[in-house]
Structure prediction request, 200 residues.
Amino acid sequence: MRGRRNRRSRGRRSIRIVDVVLTLLFLGGVALLVDRLQRFGGQTLTGVVIVHDGDTLTVAGERIRLEGIDAPEFQQRCTLGGKEYACGREALRALRRLVGGAEVVCEGFQRDRYDRLLARCKVNETDIGEALVAAGWALAYGDYDAVEAEARRAQRGIWGGGFEAPRDWREEHHGEPRPGDGDLLRRLWGRLVRWFSGEE
Prediction:
């Protein structure tokens, strides 16, 4: 009698595991399908650029937040050699130097909760987000980790002194929060989707 019960309970457990695995596979497939459909609705923008801060700009009338980075806020201050300086304004200047009158091409397909297009932008085939992280004027936010590590080693930009992570600065000064800040699962899922879609 006990043997039959044990076999039944083992059988039920294996059915539950199969159900969970099938459910996860189904949800993963739906997520990839949604991702592909969103990409069909993606936007490519070129045009006149207005720089707002170290990671936000307007191209052809569309407000864009550079995807994969987080730059010091415009009012943010950092330290260098024991003295404070306006690192937020330096980040803005770095972005202005990068785009300096050249044609910018931005591609994005998602929006944040403030209706800004999350996009990767290039100028003369240079990835602007990557260039800002490499120069030390932005932190990698889910992307460009190796580039950030090199900027840190070389003590470029804000890595040359002391600074507060832009996210922490915003929380302390009640600045505009970045959507998904601290959401590790969202970042991991985004990487997984990019890996399966062949972008990584």
User: Anything to note?
Assistant: The first strand starts at residue 43 and ends at 47. Residues 36-40, 177-185 have pLDDT under 50 and may be disordered. Residues 71 and 138 are 4 Å apart (CA to CA).
